[in-house]
Amino acid sequence: DVAETFKSVVAHAPHELNEFIDFYGRTYIGLIEQENSWIIVTPRFENTTWSCYNSVLSGCRRTNNVVEGWHSRFQGEIQSHHATIWKFLDFIRKDEADNKVLIEQLFGGHRKIRHPIKRVYLINNSQIYELVRPYNEFKNTGMTKVYLHRIGRLLKNNFAYIPEQNDYQPS
Questions:
Q1: Which residues of 98-135 are buried (b: 16+ CB within 10 A; e: fewer)?
Q2: Angle at which helices 65-78 and 85-107 pack, to 10 degrees?
Q3: Side-chain half-sphere of 49: how many Cα atoms within 13 Å?
Q4: Dihedrals φ, ψ of 43, to 5°?
Q5: Bridge partners of 40?
Q6: Using CA atoms, how far apart are residues 77 and 90, in angstroms rounded to an integer?
Q7: pLDDT tens digits, residue range 21-75?
Q8: Residue ranges with strand state E in 7-99
Q9: Is 0.70 topped by the overall pTM?
Q10: Which one-letter DSSP state was computed for residue 167?
Q11: Taking a C-beta distance cutoff of 8 angstroms, is the pair 45, 27 a contact?
């Protein structure tokens, strides 16, 4: 689906984007356009490493923000670019102790052991899920272009999706 959708987008893209399209096609899709035909190549990054489609449907995280948060906390604690092994081990021990407390809280029946996700992110996740969920219905009815247009509008409007009049609604 990714390759076919990419070809569809490229067919409607302005010529000013050709250099970007070549880069993106070669790096992420595994396609190079030459003389009105497509050559299949091995992409540098398979779509399983960058596509969030399955993550959205399964309710998993789509970003590495959790890792970024841990790294930020790590740097704040260590306060050095070249820390000693002892500082590093102290941080790891403290982090392990914090995680043990969280695990005990879970076993003890506590449900709110972490900071809640901000409401705006919950709304964003819900909107993304509601757009991604009916993809196969759009695809099966030949409406992939409408699907992509909706996602584009969601991103352009900073996650404030507003359906247009006569917007196609799959059953």
A1: eeeeeeeeeeeeeeeeeeeeeeeeeebbeebeebbebb
A2: 130
A3: 7
A4: -70, 155
A5: 31
A6: 10
A7: 999 999 999 998 888 889 999 999 998 888 888 888 888 777 777 778 788 888 8
A8: 31-34, 37-40
A9: no
A10: -
A11: yes
